[in-house]
Amino acid sequence: MACCLGSALLLLLLLLGSASSAGQNHCLDAAEACTADARCQWLRTEYVTQCLARSASGDCDLARCHRALRRFFSRGPPALTHALLFCQCTGTECAERRRQTFVPACAFVGSNPSPPSCLEILEACELSPVCRPRLLAFQASCAPAPDVCLRGQGPRCLRAYAGLMGTAVTPNYVDNASARVAPWCDCGVSGNRREECESFQGLFTRNRCLDGAMQAFDSGWPSILQEQLDSHQDPGHSLLQISSADQSLEGSSLLAILSVLALKPLL
Ligand SMILES: *[C@@H]1O[C@H](CO)[C@@H](O)[C@H](O)[C@H]1NC(C)=O
């Protein structure tokens, strides 16, 4: 019984995910799975609140936003936090949701009107006891050899990438038309250190190991949400949580729930 209710819930999540767009929206699924988990939901509310808050000068409070993001990734359930960060998209609506998930207006861009040099970002990171070990771990874990991950290296690479969220190097998806990621910086004014600058930027923009690990993450996708649903002892309860707590659910969601229930005898 529990197994079948679980599957019906998974189907429900998938249906809700596709209700607002053609095709699957894994990033919407991930957001809903986080909403259904009290810890994930609480930590997400925390970082969104901190990252949207304005200081007296009108800027966002980057230090608080980053601290809350680090807390989200260090204390949240990894299956859910990683699903939000690495959900794969086929359409722009999904990719736009993914790009906006970690409040890039503060966490990624900060108060900069235009991107700083990547060398500045690198230097800020090297001076930071929080950032430096995380960047070293990322370099070690996502280093292509020669241009792919070593066998089994992918998950470690993704953990190290997630570890950079909320540091001086915080990366994000650069647009809603690709899965390209980078920190908020460029190498336009790096002068005679251009090569050093581009090699740092290339850790994100030309890293086959990282790209491959992100794509591979998606192959385990349905089981991630399934495990999360199974971990709820009372499936009926989690259904209530999902449907009452996520304000992003469209008006069509009740209809979707009803149609799932109506379809159930056919499944
Ligand atoms: C995708 O990004 C472009 C450029 O920033 C923007 O104009 C467009 O509205 C975005 N698409 C979606 C679905 O948000």
UniProtKB/TrEMBL annotation:
<dbReference type="InterPro" id="IPR003438">
    <property type="entry name" value="GDNF_rcpt"/>
</dbReference>
<keyword id="KW-0675">Receptor</keyword>
<dbReference type="GO" id="GO:0043235">
    <property type="term" value="C:receptor complex"/>
</dbReference>
<comment type="similarity">
    <text>Belongs to the GDNFR family.</text>
</comment>
<keyword id="KW-0472">Membrane</keyword>
<dbReference type="GO" id="GO:0016167">
    <property type="term" value="F:glial cell-derived neurotrophic factor receptor activity"/>
</dbReference>
<keyword id="KW-0732">Signal</keyword>
<feature type="domain" description="GDNF/GAS1">
    <location>
        <begin position="118"/>
        <end position="209"/>
    </location>
</feature>
<feature type="signal peptide">
    <location>
        <begin position="1"/>
        <end position="21"/>
    </location>
</feature>
<dbReference type="GO" id="GO:0007399">
    <property type="term" value="P:nervous system development"/>
</dbReference>
<dbReference type="InterPro" id="IPR037193">
    <property type="entry name" value="GDNF_alpha"/>
</dbReference>
<keyword id="KW-0325">Glycoprotein</keyword>
<dbReference type="InterPro" id="IPR016017">
    <property type="entry name" value="GDNF/GAS1"/>
</dbReference>
<keyword id="KW-1003">Cell membrane</keyword>
<protein>
    <submittedName>
        <fullName>GDNF family receptor alpha-4</fullName>
    </submittedName>
</protein>
<dbReference type="GO" id="GO:0009897">
    <property type="term" value="C:external side of plasma membrane"/>
</dbReference>
<feature type="domain" description="GDNF/GAS1">
    <location>
        <begin position="27"/>
        <end position="106"/>
    </location>
</feature>
<dbReference type="Pfam" id="PF02351">
    <property type="entry name" value="GDNF"/>
</dbReference>
